[in-house]
Design goal:
homodimer, 147 residues, alpha/beta, CBS-domain, three-stranded mixed β-sheet, 9 helices
Chain lengths: 147, 147
Amino acid sequence: MRARDLMVDYPTVALTDPAIDAARLLARSNLPGLIVVDDRGAPFAVLPGTQVLRLAVPVYIQDDPNLAAVIDEAAADVFLTELGERTVRDSLPPQPHELPVVDPDDTVLEVAALMARTRTPLVAVVDHGALLGAITLDRLLDRVLGA
Amino acid sequence: MRARDLMVDYPTVALTDPAIDAARLLARSNLPGLIVVDDRGAPFAVLPGTQVLRLAVPVYIQDDPNLAAVIDEAAADVFLTELGERTVRDSLPPQPHELPVVDPDDTVLEVAALMARTRTPLVAVVDHGALLGAITLDRLLDRVLGA
């Protein structure tokens, strides 16, 4: 079993898309994360769902849990709408050293090790810079465990 | 909206459960992660799905991507079955400093900030040491965005 046997079509978001639309895509489709592509359609970032949240949670609150507690309930309820007009590019968290991207010929163990190392339940399958598809953790487990 | 309004019942695994059963639960139920409870039913660990993979991917392969590439395809396909008789306790990755656990009165922003900070799309809701339920990232986004 190789990456090419596990991959499926997967929606992408562009750097110029509104960040709120990216959050809505994640929510509506119950995706484990998002693939952000550049102008040429190549993966620029692969964000686990928790890091899509970071698009919207103010940095000072991420850094200091006590500050989250002083925001009142009504304001907390609408924190995602604070994204306003910001684009995905404006809101991207600092990029990790290693992009969760695999080659179509990589084995399931290479894919699993990459997911574990990058803590990302989603990897992009890329061949010579072109995005072929994606592998989700659910899909990998289903295939490996025969679920 | 408070943690108590967002939480749902969530399956747990015990430290003494076979690790392979934990992986199967994750796969079968398409869960974003697992809550591992101790003998008294209190959360001992909250593992994002990618860290459940770490139960099975040998440590030397997690540390060195090149080593994953030298395992042949047939052996790679069955890496999860190598868990054998190991329990969840035997296989647990090193514990992070911060357990993704919230109080029933925490706001949605506090829950979101914790998910972002711990990179865990699942938090346990605990009151005086007792596990009341869990909040998944999907559930949080659906409620906040009204999806």
